[in-house]
Amino acid sequence: MSSFVQATPEEQLFETTRASVDLHSKEELLEKFKRSFAEKKPLTIKVGFDPSRPDLHLGHTLLLMRMRRFQQFGHKVVFLIGDFTAMIGDPSGKNLARPALSRDEVTANAETYKQQVFKILDPETTEVRFNSEWLDALGTEGMVRLASHYSVARMLERDDFKQRFREGRTIALHEFLYPLLQAYDSVVLKADVELGSTDQIFNLLVGRHLMRDYGLAPQVVMTGQILEGVDARMEEGRLVGEKMSKSLGNYIGIDEPPEQIFGKLMSISDELMWRYFELLSSKSAQELAALKQATQSEGKNPKDAKIELAFEITQRFCGQKAAQTAAENFERRFARKEVSCENFPCLELHLKGAPKLPLAKILAQTQLADSASQARRLLEQGGVRVNQSKVSDTKAELEAGEYLLQVGKLKGLQLKLLP
To answer: 96 pLDDT exceeds 70?
Structure first.
């Protein structure tokens, strides 16, 4: 724990809580750091991941990077794969129950998680656990006893449950079990700190309650900001967009080819670029302030800053050589106008039950146009091609399928439009 003893509790507190949203509580965390520092004993940092999708994206890395900060101070991180709880399905932040997964689906997805997390985490101080280790053994009697620790009234305080109850929509009994089982994970692991995203705050606080009931010191709960997807944009002075999600197709996977990671990052809006810098870059606050000043006040091309961001993130997950190649290919294709369609970035969008989507709306959502109205103007002007054929109908629609979309000579992407 050499790195741990070199940092004071106050220094650890400052670094590990940067850009946090919820913290219950700062005083408790400082006391834990002080005790750990005095006893030279690492804290146990718990973070749960439900393997509902097989790949991790940049949104997940916000948590992973915070976990890494704790590791840099010598603390132990438990990367908890919720293989048991994924079979229940957590509706946090949703208005409907999330579909449960089969054991085979969970196992397959979990394997990909284990292969990807060590692109950020230190394997020496990371403990990978599956909560089926103890939840399978809980049994019927244990489940009933666990359920006795929390009331229905308290469970209905959770925002999504409250809204569904108020609107008379179904809440299945098994959904109440998810927060309790996640909390029981903290009891078993004797977690000192649990990290999560803001939409998980209720579940994490249940862990504090349950740990007290089991005679343990309650875990500190810390949440971080949620990363918007690549289609987020500025509207009326504020950034608007859904969080990064594979199901919404607005994600950048950390296991994607370097060309795709680089290309997707270069496709984001200038406003979103600064948000990504803030949440994803390893640059210091002073370095970011200087870069933003140079770009906004001194006339530096925003594209140059975006290239810095794309290179840093691509290098992080693919290595320096691959990032350099991706940057050179991007420069050759776009700056030198050597367009090669097969190298355009790939993106997925979902129809969400609709038979088709308006092409103008697709161009806006994928940031090939600044808005749907601009997209319609581009169509009228003959500046849009679909599968290399010019489309000028402003009411054109696309059904599920794969398309090459091009706006002008240099902008384009390969689109998978999913049902």
So the answer is: no
